Amino acid sequence: MPRLSGRGGMADASSTTTVPCGGTGRVRTAYRCRAYPTPEQAVMLSRTFGCVRVVWNRTLAARHARWHAERRSTSYAETDRALTEMKKQPDLAFLGEVSSVPLQQTLRHQHTAMTAFFQKRALLTYKTHRDGRTLAMVDRWYPSSKTCSACGHLLAMLPLGTRHWACPGCGTRHDRDVNAAQNIAVAAGLVETQNACGADVRHEGQPSVRSAVNQEPQPARVGIPRL
Ligand SMILES: [Zn+2]
Predict the structure, then answer these.
(1) Using the 8-state DSSP alphabet, how is residue 90 labeled?
(2) pLDDT tens track for 44-98
(3) Domain that residue 141 falls in
(4) In this structure, are 144 and 62 located in the same domain?
(5) Cα-to-centroid distance, 174 and ligand 1 (Å)
(6) Against a cut of 0.70, is the pTM above it?
(7) Whether residue 57 is found in the same domain as residue 31
(8) CA of 140 to the centre of ligand 1 (A)
């Protein structure tokens, strides 16, 4: 494996793989690179990664705050201006001490990720509407599987492999996915639930914010039929 740089610096070498692609005469080439930074460069890289995390987290928090307050998404240009303002804040002045290129890349990557998320959500909304269903979204941390849809009892844990369980609070036996779907439907305001006495129950800790699809990849999380 050749080393292309002899100065102990950033861009030392790697391997090259050439794979013939059957019959077409074309080849596919892959490069694998590894950096060997000096101690000074390692410190600068570490600081840069730290700054990238700060910019990512602050920008994401600002996006969420704007969405919840104004129901308005944030453009890339707005995040870029916000980054300029961040650098002027005394407690964030260190952001100006690293290259601005990775920080702006961070903004671009986040904007791309958010755009993909909203496009996906728009597609889901269209498909569920077309099929006569309703797209229900709840906070990603909402414990839809671990909460009894009959009495609201919250289990401390529910292993992923457990498909059926009995509620220690009220004794109801649950199918994991059906129970989760019922909880999501209630949380999303699609239906009211009732306890064993017939009175309306709103589960304690029910999410008021519907910001993301539920964390578990269960088919019931979208396209819940109107009950
Ligand atoms: Zn229960």
Answers:
(1) G
(2) 999 999 999 999 999 999 999 998 899 888 999 999 999 999 999 999 999 999 9
(3) 133-227
(4) no
(5) 9
(6) no
(7) no
(8) 22
